[in-house]
C-alpha cells in the first residue's frame, strides 16, 4: 500500500510539472532568432570579442606577470 501511495505521489508531481510547462508562453524559432539578432546588433559595440580591449590593463584575461626569485 505504501508503494502505491508513493507512486501516486510521484505521478502527481510529474503531472503538476507538466501543467507548469504547458502553461509557458511559447515563441516560434523565427521570432526568437529575430530577437537575438536585434540584441546582438544593438550590443555589438560592447562586445569585446568583436571590438577587442582598449588596452591590456583592461583585459581580465591577460597573462599575469610572474615574479621569479633567484
From TrEMBL:
Example of a GO biological process term: G protein-coupled receptor signaling pathway
Family: Belongs to the G protein gamma family.
SMART domains reported in the protein's UniProt record: G_gamma, GGL
Molecular functions per Gene Ontology: G-protein beta-subunit binding
Highest classification ranks of the organism: Eukaryota, Metazoa, Ecdysozoa, Arthropoda, Hexapoda
GO cellular component: heterotrimeric G-protein complex
Domain called G protein gamma: residue spans: 4-70
Annotated organism of origin: Drosophila rhopaloa
PROSITE patterns for this protein: G_PROTEIN_GAMMA
UniProt signal peptide: none
Gene coding for it: LOC108051949
InterPro entries assigned to the protein according to its UniProt record, in alphabetical order: G-protein_gamma (IPR001770), G-protein_gamma-like_dom (IPR015898), GGL_sf (IPR036284)
Record's bilayer topology term: Lipid-anchor
Protein name: Guanine nucleotide-binding protein subunit gamma-1
Predominant location: membrane
Keyword annotations from UniProtKB, A to Z: Cell membrane, Lipoprotein, Membrane, Methylation, Prenylation, Transducer
Any matching Pfam family: G-gamma
Compartments (UniProt record): Cell membrane
Amino acid at each position: 500500500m505504501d508503494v502505491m501511495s508513493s507512486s501516486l505521489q510521484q505521478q502527481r508531481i510529474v503531472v503538476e510539472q507538466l501543467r507548469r510547462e504547458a502553461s509557458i508562453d511559447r515563441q516560434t524559432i523565427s521570432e526568437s532568432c529575430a530577437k537575438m539578432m536585434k540584441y546582438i546588433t544593438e550590443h555589438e559595440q560592447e562586445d569585446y570579442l568583436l571590438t577587442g580591449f582598449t588596452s591590456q590593463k583592461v583585459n581580465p584575461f591577460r597573462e599575469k606577470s610572474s615574479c621569479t626569485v633567484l
